[in-house]
């Protein structure tokens, strides 16, 4: 791991440790059914936006937002909306949508594939400018970033090869935090 990657990991761990005791009850209550796992995943979805570069053609204009979409069953509820509120990535505001049709997924930049999402889009789809997020709690099939629980913590695998095919560049700082990285 590079010096910068180690520093980022240490800082991220410190922030989580400092926030943990104070923030955990709010997250647990905010997530549907008091589910801390999905509160953490919602925060990751928002944070991923700052560590991925999209091709310019992925946005309608310089002010267009980064759109986070949840396809299929939404395990986040209002937690994801609260996590994204007021956040930016590369100077663009973050917005959250929940598309109900395949056509409505157009314009999504980050797409979480929940239960039933296969009717909207396949996790193996490499659509230009789309970061596909999958979840081992939902299905074993992996997208570009795949959530897993490891040692009772939310972690993730990254398929950099698929991201590159989609025209995305994932920051080395995020790659350093992944359990595994599939190279191109």
What topology emerges from the helices and strands here?
Elements: H1 3-30, H2 36-48, E1 52-53, E2 66-71, H3 78-84, E3 88-89, E4 92-97, E5 110-113, E6 131-135, E7 145-150, E8 153-159, H4 160-165, E9 169-170, H5 172-177, E10 181-182
Parallel strand pairs: 2-4, 2-5, 5-6, 6-7, 8-10
Antiparallel strand pairs: 1-9, 3-4, 7-8
Helix pairs in contact: 1-2, 2-3
SSE order, as H and E? HHEEHEEEEEEHEHE
Give the helix/strand class.
alpha/beta
Number of strands: 10
Shape: globular
Which CATH architecture is right?
3-Layer(aba) Sandwich
- Low-confidence parts, pLDDT < 50 over ≥5 residues? 1-30
Task: Quote the CATH topology.
Answer: Rossmann fold
What gap, in angstroms, lies between the N and C termini?
19 Å
Which assembly state applies to the chains in this document? single chain
Largest sheet: 8 strands, mixed
Helix content percent band: 25-40%
Key features?
single chain, 184 residues, alpha/beta, Rossmann fold, eight-stranded mixed sheet, two-stranded antiparallel ribbon, disordered N terminus
Quickly describe the structure:
With 184 residues, the chain is α/β, with parallel strands linked by helices.
